[in-house]
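Reopening this one. Same input as before:
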Amino acid sequence: MKILIVSGSDVHELLSYGECAEVLRDALAARARGEVCQPLRTVIRPGDRAGLMALMPAYWPGTDPAYGLKAICIFGGNPAIGLDAHQGVVLLSSTRTGEPLAILNASAITEIRTAAVSAVATALLARPDATELAIIGTGVQARAHLLAISGSRPLTGIRVAGRDHARAARFASQLQASAGAAVTACASAREAVAGAGLIVTATSAAEPVLQRGWLAAGTHINAVGACLPHTRELDSATMADAALFADSRESVRGEAGDYLLALAEGAIGPDHVRAEIGELLTGDAAGRSSDQEITVFESLGLAVEDLAAAAYVYGKASRLGAGVLADF
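Same output, byte for byte:
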């Protein structure tokens, strides 16, 4: 038996943000139509030990192969030693026999597909005239979101802020040539989001980095960083005033601290999620209701997104002879 090994650098070479966004539009719409089999991910958190592991299986007959499993560890301290916080693999298995066909670098798949989903959500929910982007965070996802969103719509300016202003300044300098608009490092999140029509929160924060009083009317927010029930990036007032959209209602109700902590404080009700992104794509739900409305896309990440992105890369790698074919 042969298995294709696709490295992180190969994934980046084979999968652009634009390509990934188109693949994910199909996958999210298919999920909204009930064509995807995908349980809520299993998360292993070993007490007070560092890190956690998540197992994310999915089946979608719209891909070949149709079976995928992402096994990923999340270690929040990794960026301090120069590593992505997400480390793991995506396994693709044959639709016909179940034989393993490919193993792909999950850090790269996660990096690209997460930002690509936000680009899809931004296209669906943001005001057409929103051209100022603020990014809170300076890590892998901050970089990916800058590239994905700037590549999907015209921007007039990008502002970035993080816990370390010097790091934010380096981030702005490094990304300037790729951004297509001026990238400015700000001293605070409040300064970065002032007047911005588009906001990305991509942090490892446990407490809110964004407050309602800082937001302009009509802002769209992609909330990416908080993926555990006890962590949040948005304050309860923002959640209460915003129209909330999700990749998955089930994931938001089970995992999203932005939602769960606001719910526990009584700021929102249990039915606060207006729609899933897939439902907007199929036309089964409406998005933004006015130019003044604040919209939030709560991004948790879905196994079918990993499957769809990985299957696309596998097909392209097979055609082009990329990756390493190994005996297994």
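So the earlier flakiness isn't reproducible anymore. For the record, The chain is about 35% helix and 25% strand.
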